[in-house]
């Protein structure tokens, strides 16, 4: 078959276009911009957990103020309108808060400082009563079994974990049937609370004490953020100290490593086919597919504004989806006892940021590689 010069030129353009498209797709993650959404009230710091009311777009923020002495703390549950206006705040005094969730007109609260699961009406005000649902227990043994680590030279290490038995409820996620799943960062555990929106009193089931849920790293938080895949057959778990994204097939499958080198893997949610993970030690929001490949990246610390608020992301902790946006909490929490070595020490105004969600390409076939 012979081709004219014109036909050859058209063919070359088509092939060049296809090559450019393939080259562009192969370059790496989409990079997204971060912009301010809202600031915390004066005197309130360390925004950690987030939840959103899907009916009106209101956003709930819990703070993790664990300063010493305890009398210096000012923990709050905040309620913001979808446009970033502060609507209400409820004091929690000395007890830091971690994970939040919305269900059936209530905000569910992991009260880290009190070791409790609590809830409060979504339209709370300053004096709205808080309801206790259950106390998280001291588990026995206090820490999971040792973890075996294979080395390249054929040897093997054994990591033994210590724990004082202090409950550390941290991340939560609701299943569609009303069951609530909770992570325990210090005791290396996953819990399930059946019918959490209706039970009273509520019963706690220990779902797993796998050694992969614990950490011996300098960041002392193991199991952290939780998320389901689309059909809720897989539970994804962040291990913050180990910088790993884990997965567990429900109801009682083996805990497996999906992705590594994610320093400070904190808040986690599943949206639009991606696992959105906040790596708090590198100040980034990452969107990973279910094979563990980073498809989207946003953030990085970009300095402080004139009023001492972070620009970009600084120790981001949690995220929620609000329409076309993802809202992120800048925890901005100093970790080391040394003075002058962390930008978090210089923050004087704490804030929430937002990222416009990208338009992601759709795939024609299901991703079978995501199934173990």
TrEMBL record:
Gene3D superfamilies to which the protein is assigned, alphabetical: TolB, C-terminal domain
Taxonomy, superkingdom: Bacteria
The keyword NADP belongs to this UniProt entry's keyword annotation: no
InterPro entries, alphabetized: 6-blade_b-propeller_TolB-like, SMP-30/CGR1_Lactonase
The keyword Signal is annotated on this UniProt entry: yes
Region forming the signal peptide: 1-24
Keyword entries, A-Z: Signal
Protein name: SMP-30/Gluconolactonase/LRE-like region domain-containing protein
